[in-house]
Specification:
- This protein has 17 helices and 18 strands.
- By secondary structure, the chain is of the alpha/beta class.
- Helix 8 crosses helix 14.
């Protein structure tokens, strides 16, 4: 039998006679240095590694002790022995704290593809970032009940490879949900399950590029994330201005693009609803529409707005997800494509990942069909309305010169400061100094415009919202706003 371990391909026969512990410690140190054992990774139990190497447990224990004395690993009881430092690395990196960009560096340079990751890890007392759902409201008990029922009933064949379009159960549930809540009549066979709107944009972008489209117009202002995903597919994203009725179709025609990406039910970030006359004008335009229905269910003070897909299905690629309704961690969304793109889009999904994981799809389908998701939505609307009201009142008191937009629906408010002499990135950086995170409006612009902030409220209790907006008022005064 070979005296070696699968772990790091260690072969004890390479160790000099009488120096096995020293040899093992050096091999582990090298693995930490070159990244094979990254920060936070756990070493094998001493007894298990000793058995694999066919040495006494004392040899492994001594090797681990050497690394511990050097500060490279740390014993954590039942958590095992964990890598906490890279040889030669700064202490703050070694202890796993990691390096995050300063607020000044984050907000004084143009946003990169990593900007949202950087914001998420930026330390703060209060997070008012837009687009964050109330993760504390996730229906854990209902999800567990549905999961147990799915596992109890699932046949053995259900654990195999499935349809790349998604499970039949979820496609049927989504079709019913869209008919009931978005006015879309769709056959379940038309529904493609994807890993959230992000993947939907990537797949649609690929398909449109292969169809000869090189540029997709985007709303101005509009989502930086959408621009990033489309540009990653090699597509240009020329800006199309908005007015109080939504995207200006005359400006869209001037751009000469073959497609446009829109958030018509609740425009991100302004909250504008695409008006009826503008919708008819858009339908007469003739290009492909990417409809991102990212938070259409979250409305409070206005009647529901039908999806564009319900008007002209042959020209609208419709994308939705449960990221804002349940949790982004589920990575579950759907696409309805025009007939001419449907098969190509399914092929793109097949070659991307063979389809989403089936078990979460089946659980979600059961939540939808049982009425649990509908009950969850009603609860969220009540909670979000209270938090929206708390933020609106706090803004009135602490940011009296701010103009508030988008209050009738969604998960955030947009506040702008007309004719202000400061940059919104300066205000966002000052806010972080007071422990509050948010997004400057300029991140979501391609053209000049007044400064503003996007303030998320869905994930934050009313009392914390009050404290956060109070801090924003202090930051605004400090920069002379």
């Amino acid at each position: 039998m070979s005296a070696g371990a699968d772990f790091l391909q260690l072969d004890i026969r390479e160790a000099p006679f009488g120096r096995r512990a020293e040899w093992l410690a050096e091999r582990l140190r090298q693995a930490i240095s070159d990244g094979r054992l990254p920060l936070g990774s756990r070493l094998p139990a001493t007894r298990a590694l000793a058995a694999d190497l066919r040495v006494s447990r004392g040899v492994v224990t001594e090797a681990y002790q050497r690394l511990s004395e050097d500060g490279h690993v740390e014993g954590r009881g039942r958590g095992g022995t964990v890598v906490v430092a890279v040889p030669g690395a700064p202490v703050e990196q070694a202890r796993g704290i990691g390096r995050t960009p300063s607020a000044e560096a984050l907000f004084t340079t143009p946003p990169t593809v990593h900007v949202f990751d950087a914001v998420r890890v930026l330390p703060s007392r209060i997070d008012l970032s837009p687009g964050a759902p109330d993760l504390a409201a996730f229906p854990r008990a209902a999800w567990l009940r549905a999961e147990r029922a799915v596992l109890a009933e699932l046949p053995t064949s259900g654990f195999g490879y499935g349809d790349p379009r998604g499970t039949e159960e979820l496609r049927r549930a989504v079709a019913y949900w869209l008919a009931r809540y978005r006015g879309i009549a769709a056959d379940p066979r038309e529904v493609l399950i994807v890993a959230g709107t992000a993947q939907a944009l990537g797949l649609i972008g690929t398909v449109l590029r292969e169809d000869g489209i090189r540029a997709i117009g985007v709303e101005e202002p509009g989502s930086l994330g959408v621009r990033q995903h489309l540009r990653n597919q090699g597509l240009e994203t020329p800006p199309v201005p908005l007015d109080e009725d939504g995207v200006r179709v005359d400006a869209l025609r001037e751009q000469g693009v073959g497609a446009v990406a829109l958030t018509p039910a609740h425009q991100f970030p302004t909250g504008v609803v695409l008006g009826g006359a503008r919708r008819r004008e858009l339908m007469a335009w003739g290009g492909v529409v990417l409809e991102d229905d990212y938070d259409a269910e979250h409305r409070y003070d206005r009647a529901p707005v039908p999806a564009l897909r319900s008007m002209v299905p042959e020209r609208v690629c419709y994308a939705g997800s449960v990221s804002k309704l349940l949790a982004p961690a589920l990575r579950t969304g759907w696409v309805l494509a025009p007939p001419r793109y449907r098969d190509t889009l399914v092929d793109a999904k097949r070659f991307a990942d063979l389809g989403n994981a089936a078990l979460p799809q089946l659980v979600l389908a059961r939540l939808m069909e049982s009425g649990e998701l509908e009950r969850h939505l009603r609860m969220l609307r009540r909670r979000h309305r209270r938090r929206r009201d708390a933020m609106t009142e706090a803004i009135r008191r602490h940011l009296p010169r701010a103009v508030v937009r988008g209050a009738a629906a969604g998960l955030h408010l947009l506040v702008t400061f007309e004719a202000a002499a400061f940059a919104d990135t300066e205000l966002a950086a000052a806010a972080v100094a007071h422990g509050v995170k948010t997004h400057p409006l300029s991140w979501h612009r391609q053209l000049p415009g007044p400064p503003g902030l996007l303030l998320g409220y869905a994930a934050t209790p009313a009392a914390v919202i009050e404290a956060g907006v109070t801090a924003l008022g202090q930051a605004l005064r400090e920069i002379g706003g």
